[in-house]
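During the practical work, I selected for study one protein's amino acid sequence and its backbone structure tokens, as given directly below:
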Amino acid sequence: MNYEIKIASELGVKPHQVQATIDLLDGGATVPFISRYRKEATGTLDEVQVAAIRDRIEQLRELDKRREAVFKSIEEQGKLTPELKKAIDAAETMAKLEDIYLPYKPKRRTKGTIAREKGLEPLAERVFTQTSFDLAAEANKYLNEELEVKSTEEALQGARDIIAEWINEKAEIREKMRKLFLEEGTFTSRVIPGKETEAIKYKDYFDWSEPIKTAPSHRVLAMRRGEKELFLMLDSCPEEGGALALLEREILADAANSAVDQVKLAIKDCYKRLLKPSMETEIRLLTKKKADEEAIKVFAENLRQLLLGAPLGEKSVLAIDPGFRTGCKLVCLGPQGQLLHYEAIFPHEPQRQTAAAGMTVKGLVDKFSIQAIAIGNGTAGRETEAFVKGLGLPKSVIVTMVNEAGASIYSASEVARNEFPDLDLTVRGAVSIGRRLMDPLAELVKIDPKSIGVGQYQHDVDQNALKNALDDTVMSAVNGVGVEVNTASKELLTYVSGLGPVLAQNIVEFRTENGPFTSRSQLKKVPRLGEKAFEQAAGFLRIQNAKHPLDRSAVHPERYELVEKMAHDLKASVSDLMSSEELRNRILLKNYVSETVGLPTLQDILEELAKPGRDPRETFEVFQFQEGVNSMTDLRVGIKLPGIVTNITAFGAFVDIGVHQDGLVHLSHLADRFVKDPNEIVAVAQKVQVTVLEVDIPRKRIGLSMKSDPFAERGKSPVKAPQKEKESSRESSMAEKLAQLKGKFR
């Protein structure tokens, strides 16, 4: 099969680009390597396109593998005709292939097979002609006490069972029925009687119906979860009348006789007993797959944005994992994230050792020349932030809140135990908070992405597909930024193109035994790191203090000779090229074009010479929540607050406004214009200004808006904050929506 032509047509690229990409992938090249260092071969395909080709070729090869199995099975039965072979060859989807194979597929004992065993197939064939004949007389020919065909009706029932299977196995019928289910089918959910109270979080779906073709992924997954938890009954099919009408149009003869009546009965039985359950299973799988893909896409994009959050960089950091009763765990970290000191302070109730805690923090800031203080945003986070800001520390010391989602997962992980075997979980958590401020990417790769808290129904989707997508996302982020080989953890190195956990561990051990790497070429001495792995990884690894200046850039070692020739032609050194814009402007790229190197690669090289090893992430900016707004009771409808986007879903964005409960900016309130995709407007970790729309303290629901005038549609001004005692009786539409959406999201 000409995969390259088919995939090129689907993706809107050239066949030779697809073929080159397939060849590179088959040769062991990674997606980041191909998109970065093989632009001439692929015609400058980007990561998304290369990954799409990889995924599609896997699907097509899997289809061909199944096709071969089908051929073999039918051939062994002696039933493979030229027409059948042609149909199997032409099948472009797994569903179509399985439809063709169904009549030949080994079956368990069915009503149809039992009827055949009773010798009723000739009767079925006669009935299926739908011609006029004496039906009772014909059926009576098949009465047989020994075969348990004792009556005319038993004979006709057996014939109908056989006909029902014939109809069910017709590929063209199944294709049309599948289309009907997809285009006219409806999701219908009902609460299981007696479970109304238990299932309150699924209240939206107690009596819910919507077209299958337009149901958004989050609602599909919510209904399926409710069904799985035995709170909801879920159907997914079209009106029965429409389905039966389709079958009758396709099967029934234009005549009126007793045989036609029998076939009509067989059609009804076929639909209810065979086609409907089969189609419903298929449609549920298809819609689940589609919902999974959309949810995984949301998760992956959120994760990418979080991983690529702005790093503080190599600074001395004091990190605090805040708490009330158990105190605040405090750690001091060096510029490379090394743990220098840890202890606990108790500035809050019930101990309230505020003065002693303040003296401790001030002393540590002086002793370790602390440049920034990172405070976890969990329990007691805002109170701890206020305490630290009230200490009168030097203005040069940055004080900022850090999203600690997943820090507790890290602290109990094998990675944390190996690094800090003798430390308490909370101390490890504080270390993670501090390092997350310094370099979000380097720290977050140590945590299972599903635990970071930026997904939507991540536990309901296909876990293998989710893992593959998130691994792709992490690998893309890691290689896009680049990795300093002398300070990177094993976990970070694992995601470098061409490495993996074994080589990452070998690099760390080699570094420990032999000291820092001084050149990229030295990586070849690492056990089991061969030429292929070096080719894939070298360009993404950085060595800041290397002897060769290009070792700290993204220029691949295979192009060092080319850069050295550029320098030689200008009677300069490589270092001169990297430091002098005037020299770089004199380079005529066309003079260095060859069979293997084109202008795209040359342009990349020139950009790297100008900014070697440039970090593509944004510059860190200090963020502060609104002072005096620390809990939900401090909120007032209509006030504007700064916030940070913590999660993006299909129905809006959740924003941390510093009150220990994220608020929801619904899709309809993300902008003054219509918004289809929240990612058009916001990104995870983005700083935003929001207006409080609704506050429901009992349910812990906060409605927010990013519109310039969020109350304009209501035709009224912001109202004063409701009294706390009245909150429980207040039933606003937004609060209801928040409760339902957040419940489903959780």
Remarks:
- The two ends are 45 Å apart (CA to CA).
- The chain has 30 helices and 15 strands.
